């Protein structure tokens, strides 16, 4: 990163330097030509002119070499002094998030594990209470993870990427939701076309699950999931036949803790996390309504890998 | 089935032990890193569950030392840390899986069973095909003595091809290796992994190590 910034500084300087060199060369060539006047037409004059200009070129280059070295060194120092505090801050942020997650999850882990062990052989009503405790501790742990994710910049350094096919992930995630869809009498429709991305599998599954979760909540009879790749863009779309999204709320739904109405389940973090994941991959997550008064349409785009 | 649990929180250790014993596992508990490593080196365990933040010696270091001494016990990291860096480091030091605490009992049992199933197959530790060496235990690959840096899935694909050197596999068969389950659609992901592997092999001087069998698929050796 420091090297990249240094290179950028040096590049800018080289462009400026080349321009100055060109101007100097042209200026010198004109003033020599003016000085020689008609003598330039004679062979001796032309030879003297050529020799003088060669000399000018060499002088310019000799002048440039130490200058470029000096500026490169200075650029490196400048880039480092600028970036080091930023890199250190990023590292502190990373460590804080990891440590905070650990400290918050440890007591939750004790609660959930001890309750799960105590559940065995307990009376039915106590079992039910313990189940509530276990569920709450696991939910709280998931929220801790979500909040700490959202506290960080969506950037690729928070990801563990490898080549993935969105079609495979979509199929797998949709299969997880099939039973719930059936129970709610919603037709879960899947249409996959291979779409290759460099992505973090765990994160993209999380994004898909959040969108499916959201879709199932709003769909009336049908939820369709599509993946495809066109050129350098890989896309996942999830469309429901619910009431759609008020145009004024199409951006607000991605805000943390936003709930479309008081009765809606969930904490309102799923779509924020979804957008975070898309952005961290260099992609986007957008909400709109289907044409012709259909329900909501969520579109995720990622930079695609060239299909081999 | 005998399991080792290295966990410094006494209530969690007690509860996990109770959960596992109910499923008929025998469980030994170590509550600090040094004791844990000692147990792991001496005992014949079918699998070990290892916390990362431990007194005296952390989980990464336990697994590193155990692997360096040739211990192949499958390892599941159990930890409240879930940063990408920790997960990746956990798997790179020789851990087999990673589960974030708190966890659901069913999830824990499923992961342990998956580990035990995987270690059931008698694994040949080092596979050599001509100039290529794949070390399953250390998860390292060398070509003509040069180390190759491979991602998890790349390693899986190459390991599978090397284990079955000389046989040709279709894209669908390789895909099954990559995603761990049947995928009845079409995908080009196999070609992406194969071309990455070829690029890395080529940089170590290996041309045409993975051969394309036209109309069928890929073959190594």
What structural keywords apply?
heterodimer, A: alpha+beta, Heat Shock Protein 90, five-stranded mixed beta sheet, two-stranded antiparallel sheet, 7 strands, B: 221 residues, Arc Repressor Mutant, subunit A, four-stranded antiparallel beta sheet, 12 strands
Which regions of chain B contain 5 or more consecutive residues with pLDDT less than 50?
A: none
Biggest interface, chains and residue tallies: A-B, 41 and 45 residues
Q: Give me the oligomer status.
A: heterodimer
CATH class of the largest domain in chain A: Alpha Beta
**How big a fraction of the residues of chain A is strand?**
5-15%
Summed up, the domain count of chain B is 2
Low-confidence blocks of residues of chain A: none
* CATH fold call of the largest domain in chain B: Rossmann fold
Question: Pairing-aware structural class of the strands and helices of chain B?
Answer: alpha/beta
Write down the secondary-structure element order of chain B.
EHEHEHEHEHEEEEHEHHEE
* Strand arrangement across the biggest beta sheet of chain A: 2-4-5-7-6
* Fourth-tier CATH superfamily name of the largest domain in chain A: Histidine kinase-like ATPase, C-terminal domain
Radius of gyration of chain B: 19 Å
Q: Would you write up a description of this structure?
A:
- The complex is a heterodimer of chains A (308) and B (221).
- In chain A, the strands form two sheets. Chain A has a five-stranded mixed beta sheet with strand order 2-4-5-7-6. In chain A, strands 1-3 form a two-stranded antiparallel sheet.
- The radius of gyration of chain A is 31 Å and the shape is elongated.
- Chain A is an alpha+beta fold.
- Chain A has helices at 2-36, 43-119, 124-150, 166-183, 201-218, 270-280; strands at residues 162-165, 187-192, 196-199, 222-230, 233-240, 284-289, 296-303.
- Chain A folds into three domains: 2-87; 107-156; 158-303, Heat Shock Protein 90 (2-Layer Sandwich), CATH 3.30.565.10.
- Helix content of chain A is 60%, strand content 15%.
- The longest helix of chain A is centred in the N-terminal third of the chain and has 77 residues, at 43-119.
- In chain A, helix 4 runs parallel beside helix 5 and helix 5 packs antiparallel against helix 6 (270-280).
- Chain A has six helices and seven strands.
- With 221 residues, chain B is α/β, with parallel strands linked by helices.
- Chain B folds into two domains: 2-120, 3-Layer(aba) Sandwich (Rossmann fold); 126-220, Winged helix-like DNA-binding domain superfamily/Winged helix DNA-binding domain (Arc Repressor Mutant, subunit A, Orthogonal Bundle).
- Chain B has eight helices and twelve strands.
- In chain B, strand 11 (210-213) and strand 12 (217-220) form a beta hairpin.
- In chain B, helix 2 runs parallel beside helix 3 and helix 6 (152-163) crosses helix 8.
- The mean pLDDT of chain B is 85.
- Classes of the chains: A alpha+beta (308), B alpha/beta (221).
- Chain A binds chain B through residues 94, 97-98, 101-102, 105-106, 108-114, 116-118, 120, 134, 137-138, 141, 145, 158-160, 162-165, 167-168, 171-172, 192, 194, 196, 200, 305, 307-308, and chain B through 9, 11-12, 14-16, 18-19, 22, 53, 79-88, 100-105, 151-154, 175, 179, 181, 183, 185-189, 191-196.
């Amino acid at each position: 990163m420091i090297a990249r910034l240094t290179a950028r500084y040096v590049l800018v300087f080289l462009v400026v330097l080349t321009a100055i060199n060109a101007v100097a060369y042209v200026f010198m060539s004109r003033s020599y030509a003016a000085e020689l006047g008609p003598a330039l037409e004679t062979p001796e004059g032309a030879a003297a002119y050529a020799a003088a200009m060669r000399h000018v070129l060499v002088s310019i280059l000799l002048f440039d070499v130490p200058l470029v070295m000096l500026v490169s060194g200075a650029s490196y120092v400048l880039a480092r002094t600028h970036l080091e505090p930023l890199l250190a801050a990023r590292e502190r942020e990373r460590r804080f998030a990891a440590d905070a997650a650990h400290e918050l999850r440890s007591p939750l882990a004790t609660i959930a594990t001890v309750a799960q062990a105590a559940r065995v052989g307990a009376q039915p009503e106590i079992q039910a209470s313990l189940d509530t405790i276990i569920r709450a501790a696991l939910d709280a742990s998931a929220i801790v993870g979500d909040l700490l994710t959202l506290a960080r910049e969506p950037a690729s350094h928070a990801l563990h990427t490898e080549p993935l096919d969105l079609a495979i992930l979509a199929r797998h995630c949709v299969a997880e939701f099939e039973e719930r869809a059936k129970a709610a009498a919603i037709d879960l429709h899947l249409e996959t076309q291979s779409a290759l991305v460099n992505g973090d599998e765990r994160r993209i599954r999380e994004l898909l699950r959040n969108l499916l979760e959201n879709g199932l909540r709003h769909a009336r009879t049908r939820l369709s999931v599509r993946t495809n790749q066109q050129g350098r863009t890989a896309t996942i779309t999830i469309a429901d036949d619910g009431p759609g999204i008020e145009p004024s709320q199409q951006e607000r739904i991605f805000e943390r803790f936003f709930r479309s109405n008081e009765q809606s389940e969930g904490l309102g973090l799923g779509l924020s996390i979804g957008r975070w994941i898309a952005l961290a991959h260099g992609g986007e997550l957008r909400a709109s309504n289907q044409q012709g008064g259909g329900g909501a349409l969520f579109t995720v785009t990622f930079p695609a890998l060239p299909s081999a | 089935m005998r399991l080792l649990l290295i966990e410094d929180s006494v209530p969690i250790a007690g509860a996990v032990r109770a959960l596992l014993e109910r499923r008929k596992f025998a469980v030994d508990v170590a509550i600090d890193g040094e004791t844990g490593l000692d147990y792991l080196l001496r005992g014949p365990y079918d699998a070990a569950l290892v916390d990362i933040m431990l007194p005296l010696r952390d989980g990464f270091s336990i697994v590193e030392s155990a692997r360096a001494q040739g211990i192949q016990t499958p390892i599941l990291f159990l930890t409240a840390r879930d940063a990408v860096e920790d997960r990746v480091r956990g798997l790179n030091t020789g851990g087999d899986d990673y589960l974030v605490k708190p966890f659901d009992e069913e999830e824990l049992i499923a992961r342990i069973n998956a580990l035990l199933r995987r270690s059931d197959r008698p694994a040949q530790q080092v596979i050599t095909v001509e100039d290529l060496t794949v070390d399953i235990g250390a998860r390292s690959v060398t070509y003509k003595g040069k180390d190759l840096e491979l991602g998890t899935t790349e390693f899986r694909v190459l390991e599978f091809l090397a284990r079955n050197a000389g046989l040709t596999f279709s894209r669908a068969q390789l895909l099954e290796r990559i995603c761990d389950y049947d995928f009845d659609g079409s995908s080009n992901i196999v070609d992406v992994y194969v071309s990455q592997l070829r690029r890395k092999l080529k940089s170590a001087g290996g041309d045409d190590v993975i051969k394309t069998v036209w109309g069928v698929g890929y073959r190594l050796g």
